[in-house]
Amino acid sequence: MSKEKNKKQILPYFLVSPYLLHLLVFITFPIVFSIVLTFHKWNIISPMEYVGVDNFVRLFNDRMFWKAIVNTFVFLVIHIPLQIIIALALAYFLNQKLFFRAFFRAAFFLPVVISGVVVTMLWQQLYSFDTGLINDMLVSIGLPRVAWLTDSKFAMISIAIMATWKNVGLYVILFLVGLQSVPERYYEAADVEGASSWQKFRYITLPAINPTIFMVTILSTIGGFGLFIEPYIMTGGGPLNSTLSAMLYIYKQAFEYYHMGYAATLGIFFALIIMLVVVIQKYTIEKE
Amino acid sequence: MNFRKSLTYILLTVAALTFLYPFYWMIIASLLPESQIGDFTLIPQELTFSNYLTMFSKIPIFRSLLNSSIVAIVSTTGIIVFGSMVGYALAKMTFKGRDLIFFIIIFTMTLPFQITLIPNYILMVKFGWVDSFAALIIPALNSAFAIIMFRQVFRSIPDDLISAARVDGCTETQIIFQILWPNIIPTIITVSIITFMASWNDVLWPLIVIRDEQLMTMPQLVTLFAVGGRSDAQLGVKLASAVLLALPVIIAYLIFQKHFISSMASSGIKG
Q1: What value does the mean pLDDT of chain A take?
Q2: Which 3 state secondary structure label does DSSP give B202?
Q3: What residues of A are in contact with residue B271 (Cβ under 8 Å)?
């Protein structure tokens, strides 16, 4: 009996042991090691060199890093509102009895499953100055061509539009779930009161989907801070570093210049910014 | 049909075309001679596979397709097996430290990956895993998301079913894999799709740990082909590689469309 009991006590630990081992090797150790790295200069090949707080001093004086942080925020500030408005509008129109409803839903969702690499290569051509579809359409309605990717004023906006096109289908589905949770009788009651469509949207729909808006904001903030492959393929961070995202800059420091200590410092600092932004978002939304 | 409804249809159709037409354009453009790509809008005049043949001669694209498949299948299987073991222990067993482990799992979900990226690369160097599938598979083998999904679904399974299986002499691992798995197929499908897609589409980590062209994953190889000089700036050839990268996912999506949408939406809701 005691042997049986012993086995019962060990078993759960056996079941969670792969997780704990993985946690220790690939999360706990890296975090600790990352902190050690921030006090060192290291290119992996030669021995580590202790440099005190040099990496932090360098970070605060690194104009390029701050530019990359600002660029990343510019991306988020364009991308997130655009995505919420378009997703909400599409979900609103989809949320009724329609022929081909499943088809529309599936069409909006297609870019979500396709690799960002494909989407970026495709949009690089759509944005092409001379032969791109978007400029061709602008010309056909009498507008001038836009230097989508080669003008530093437009390049980040162009990437934000593309990212919205890629991700919006997912958020259409999330908003649809939110919209369908609003009881039909609320709208019926509003009809009896003679409310307009806008009033119904403003006073019934919007409050009901507030949690969804919150979720979409958090999800796309976390995703958006990871912005990397789009500028990596499309612009290499240019023109004039206008699309250099924080993640792309960290990547370059680590894997092009092999500044491991400095890159680890940037990584930790950037992660703290991300967590801070998400906490602030949660706090402000909960307060409302 | 009233005016309002017609307007809805027009709007939704325009939106659908905005999402679909670029993919149509890309597929046709990849089948056109370089000189005609700029002029093409709707109906192609002559189609050719020459872009594909040029691409095949320059990069080992089928090898990379195989690599991506191996990595995604092994990672997904591992995550399902380990995820259900941990999820089961957390849902159906009482032991010291259980709540702490669950708290840690939730906590790791909120950690931005930017913290561990660089030290994990150094680990790969020290383990000698750079340029091996181990670097692509083993660090990915645990997913907090999968554990939470399995914990949740196991909690909804009645204890009687498990007690009955124990009386019949089943071991706990038999209970998980033979008795419970058939009852949680929707969760397994959801976790599989999310994990598989995440592995299939990941490109940052492969760019970091794989340098040998023969071991590259498909999105990595296509990325380097697009930004490197080897496509000789030929648009058709680049697009051909992008089409091949998209094709397996498009086919899978056409078949399992409903599963894709519901799985990815549920991961958004829970995550």
Answers
A1: 91
A2: coil
A3: 219
B268, A22: Cβ pair inside 8 Å?
Answer: no
What pLDDT does residue A62 have?
Answer: 96
Query: DSSP state, B175?
Result: I
pTM attached to this predicted model: 0.92
Cβ B193 vs Cβ B211: under 8 Å: no
- CA B171 vs CA A2, A9, A19, B166: distances in Å: 17, 14, 20, 7
The verdict on B111 touching A (C-beta cutoff 8 Å) is yes
CATH fold for the domain made of B61-217+242-270: MetI-like fold (1.10.3720)
At A268, list the tokens: 């930790």
Angle at A79 between CA B116 and CA A167, to 5 degrees: 75
pLDDT surpassing 90 at residue B270 = no
Q: Do B235 and A254 touch (CB under 8 A)?
A: no
Identify all chain A residues contacting B90, using CB atoms and an 8 Å cutoff: 16
Q: Taking CA atoms, what residue in A is nearest to B12?
A: A104
Question: Do B22 and A123 lie within an 8 Å CB cutoff?
Answer: yes
- Amino acid identity for residue A259 in this structure: H
Give the pLDDT confidence score for residue A110 in this predicted structure: 95
**Taking residues A27-43, what's their average pLDDT?**
94
Please report which confidence band the pLDDT of residue A59 belongs to, taking 50, 70 and 90 as the band edges: very high
Which of A72-81, A153-162, B110-119 comes out lowest in average pLDDT? B110-119
Residue A32 tokens, joined = 């600790």
- Reference B191, options B92, B271, B254, B100; nearest CA is B271
Selecting from B16, B26, B123 the residue whose C-beta is nearest the C-beta of A30 gives B123
| Mean local confidence (pLDDT), A13-35 | 94
Interface test with A, best of B11, B77, B254, B261 (most A CBs within 10 A): B261
Q: Which residue has the tokens 């200069």?
A: A41
Assess B223–A contact: CB distance below 8 Å, yes or no. yes
d(CA B142, nearest CA chain A) in Å: 7
Residue A100 to residue A108: CA distance in whole angstroms = 12
pLDDT score for B125: 93
Q: How far apart are the first and last CA of chain A?
A: 57
Of A22, A103, A113, the CB nearest to B249: A113
Average pLDDT value for chain B: 90
Domains along chain A with CATH numbers = 2-37 (no CATH), 62-287 (1.10.3720.10)
B29 CB near a chain A CB, below 8 Å? yes
CB of B114 within 8 Å of a chain A CB? The answer is yes
ipTM of the complex: 0.92
Element (H, E) at B259: helix B235-270
Give the model's pLDDT for residue B146. 94
Taking the C-alpha atoms of residue B226 and residue B244, their distance in angstroms, rounded to an integer, is: 13
Cβ-based contacts of B9 with chain A (< 8 Å):
98
Q: How far is B27 from chain A (nearest CA, A)?
A: 10
Residue B271 pLDDT greater than 50, yes or no: no
Contacts of A195 (CB under 8 A, 6+ apart): A203
